[in-house]
Amino acid sequence: MNKSKKTAAGVYMVIPYILLVIVAIVSVFPLLWVFFAATHTNTQIYQTGMAFALGGNIVENYKNLMEFSNIWRNLANSIFIAVVYTVLVCLIDSMAGFAFAKFTFKGRDTLFFVLTCSMFIPQQVTLVPLFIQLSGMGLINTLPAVILPSLTNIFGVFLMRQNLMAYPSDLLESARIDGAGDLRVFFTIVLPTMKPVLASLAILSFVQMWGNYLWPLIALNDRDNFTVPLVLALMRAPGQVVDNGAIMLGASMALLPVVVFFLFFQKNFIQGILSGAVKG
Amino acid sequence: MKTKTGIAIFLSAALALTMAGCGGAASSSTAASTAASAAASTAATGGSDIHVASWNNAADNLSEIAEKFNAEHGDNGKVIIDYVDSDYSKLKPALAAGSGVPDIFQTQNRDIPAFYNNYGLEAFLDISDIIDADASNWVGFALETCKAEDGKYYAIPWDIGPVAMYYRTDIFEANGIDPATLTTYDKYIEAGKKLKAAGDYYVEAFNYSGSTSRDQFMIYLNQLGGQYYDADGKVKLDSDEMLQATELVKKFMDAGVVMDIPNAWDDRIAAINDGKLVSFVYPAWYMGTMKNSCADLAGKWAITTMPAFEEGGNTTSNAGGSILAVSSTTANPQLCKDFLEYAMKSNDGNDVNTKYGEFPSYTPAYDTSYFKEANDYYGGLKVNTIFAEQTGVPATTWGPYFVDVDESMKTAVGDIILNGADPATAWAAATKDAQGKIDLKG
C-alpha cells in the first residue's frame, strides 16, 4: 500500500520531466538543424529528409558566404555594436534609474511619466526623422549610427528604477555621512548590489541589438559595415539564387556568440528576473 | 558646434568603454577600418561616384557589369553597387527624407508607378534621352510601365518575366505524353490526370491560402489580356478575364492535379526535388533558381510554350520583372545615364544580364550569340530564344496603388480557394474593398 503510493508520487514527478524533455527537443531541433544544414548543399537542404548527419559541403558554403561578404568583419561589427550598446545602456539606464528612484527634484514624476509614454511610439514613425538627423551629423554608414539612437532604452530605465526603489535609503544616507559623493555612492555602494538585474538588462540589450535588423538596414550601406543579420537577410532576399547552405553557415556563426553570452549570464539572468518579481 | 563636441566626447567614451569591455583589439580595429572605408568612398576620381541599390543576385549581376564599366569608363567617377532589401525598407526613409537616396535604385516593374506617385516626379531624374533614341527596341509592356504621367521616362526597364511551361522530359516520355500536343489547359489537365494515375505526380502548384497564389491568377489574367482597372481607371477585379482565370484554377483543383504549396517559394523547390512536381507554367526568371536549388535534376527538364485557354488562343504571359530608376538628387547625372546605357543597351551588359537570369527587355540582346546558346540544364534547348518569343503580351496598367489592389486580391483568392466562396461575389467584394482603400487616399 505504502509502496504503491510512493510509485504513484514517482509517476507524477516524472510527468513534468517528460514534458520538459519534449519542449527541449522542440526548441533545440531547429537550432541543431541549422548547424547540420550548414554542412549541406543548397539542393540537399531542399530534399525532404535531409539527414541529421554532417554533409560534405561546409568548405564550399564558407567560400560562397565569404564571396558575398566578409563574414568575420560582419561578426566583428555585430560584436562591437552589441557590446558597446550593452555596456552603455547598462551604465546610462542604471544611472537614470537611480536618479528617478532616489533623488527628489522638481517634475521628477512628470518627467518619468513622459519618458515611459515614449515607449508607445512605434519604431517605424521615428525612422525618417532619425535618418535626417543622423545624415545631418554625417554618421550614416558608420557603426555609431546604429548604437546612438537606441541608447536611452526607456524600458531599461524603468526596470532599474523599479529595482532601485526597494533599495534602502538609510544605506545611502550612512554612506553620505561618511563623506561619499553621489558618484561614489552609486558606483561602490549601489551598483554592486544590482548585478542580477544588470545582467538581465545586459542580456536583453545584447540579444535585442544582436538581432536588430530594420534600423541597421537603413543606417548602413557598405557590406563591410553590415552586421550579421543584415548579411543573412540580404542573402535571402527574393531572387533567382538563394544559397541556403551558405546562409545556414552564417546563421550558425551568428548563433554561437549569443549562446555563449547567455550561458555566461544565465545564472544572473534568472536571479534578476526573480528579484524583479519579488521586489517589483 | 556644441552638439558636435558633445558627440565627439560621447563617441570617444563609447570607444574607451568597449576597449575595456571586450578586450580591445578586434573592436578598435573595426572602428579604425570603418573610418578608413568611409574616407575611401568619398575619394572620387574626377566626377563623383554613384551608388546603385539593388538586391540579391540582381545586385551580383550589376556588380559584374559595374566592374567592367568602371574598368572602361573610370575617369568620371565609379559605379558602386549597394545591397539592399527588396521590401524597400531601406529606400523609403531616404526618399522621404530627400537625402541619402541612392543615385540609381531597383524596384519591381509593377511598383514604379507607386514610387512616381508617392515621392513625386521631381524626386526622379528624366532619362528620356537614352530611351527615346531607340524606343522601338524595347519590349513594349516593360517600357510602358516606366513612362510617367507626363510622357517622360524616369526609369529604365531591366528584366522581364516571360512565361512558358517547364516539364520533366523523362516522366512525360515514360507516360507517353507529348508536350507538343498540350495546346490547351483542358488537354494539359487531362495529361495531369494520366500522370497522377501513374504516380505521385502533379502538373501545377500554388499556395491555396492566397498569400502568394495570386501570382498564378496574374499569369492567367495577363494571358487573357485582362486588366485590374476599367476604362475609367476604377478597380475592376470581377472582370470576365479574372472569372475565366478563376474557373481554370478551380478546374486544376477539381481534377486533383495541383499541389498545395503553403510556403510557396521553398515548397515549390522541395516538390521539384522530390520529383512530385513534374511540370508547371512559370516565368523565365525561375531558370536560375532551378539550376541552383535543383542541381541534381539537370538535363531532365525542358521548356516549351504554355497551353492556351482555347485552341489557337494566346500562349504568352508575363510575370514580374524589374526596372532601375534614377534619383534627381544624384551629383553625377551623366555617369548615371552612361552606366544605364551600358548595362541595359550594350551587348556586353546584356550578356551579363542573361548570364544571371535577368531576362533582358532590350530586344537587340536577343540576337547575341550568348543569348542563343544552348542550355544544358534543359537538355541543350535554346531556352532564351523560346522565352524571347513570349514577350508580346499587352501592357498591364498597375496604377499608383497596386499594393492595395494586391492585398484585396490575396484575400479574394484565399476566400475562393480555401473557403469555396463564389468567385463572382468574392471578386466583386475585392473590387469594392480595393477601390475603397484607394478613395481614402484621394
Q: In a few lines, what is going on in this structure?
A:
The complex is a heterodimer of chains A (280) and B (442). Chain A has helices at residues 2-37, 42-46, 58-68, 71-102, 108-117, 123-136, 144-147, 154-165, 169-177, 182-190, 195-210, 214-219, 228-235, 244-279. Chain A is mostly helical.
Describe the protein.
The complex is a heterodimer of chains A (280) and B (442). Chain A is mostly helical. Chain A has a single domain (70-279), classed as Orthogonal Bundle (MetI-like fold). Helices cover 74% and strands 0% of the residues of chain A. Chain A is built from 14 helices and no strands. Chain A has helices at residues 2-37, 42-46, 58-68, 71-102, 108-117, 123-136, 144-147, 154-165, 169-177, 182-190, 195-210, 214-219, 228-235, 244-279. The longest helix of chain A is centred in the N-terminal third of the chain and has 36 residues, at 2-37. The model of chain A has no long low-confidence stretch (mean pLDDT 87). Chain B has two domains: 46-161 and 320-384, D-Maltodextrin-Binding Protein, domain 2 (3-Layer(aba) Sandwich); 162-317 and 393-441, 3-Layer(aba) Sandwich (D-Maltodextrin-Binding Protein, domain 2), CATH 3.40.190.10. Chain B is built from 18 helices and nine strands. Chain B has helices spanning 2-22, 25-42, 56-72, 91-97, 112-119, 128-132, 140-146, 169-174, 185-198, 214-223, 240-254, 264-273, 286-293, 333-345, 347-355, 383-388, 402-419, 423-441; strands spanning 50-54, 79-83, 104-108, 155-168, 204-206, 258-260, 279-283, 301-304, 318-326. In chain B, the strands form two sheets. In chain B, strands 1, 2, 3, 4, 7, 8 and 9 form a seven-stranded mixed β-sheet that branches. A two-stranded parallel sheet of chain B has the order 5-6. Chain B is globular. In chain B, 48% of the residues are buried. Chains A and B meet through α2, α4, α6, α12 and α13 of A and α1, α2, α3, α4 and α12 of B.
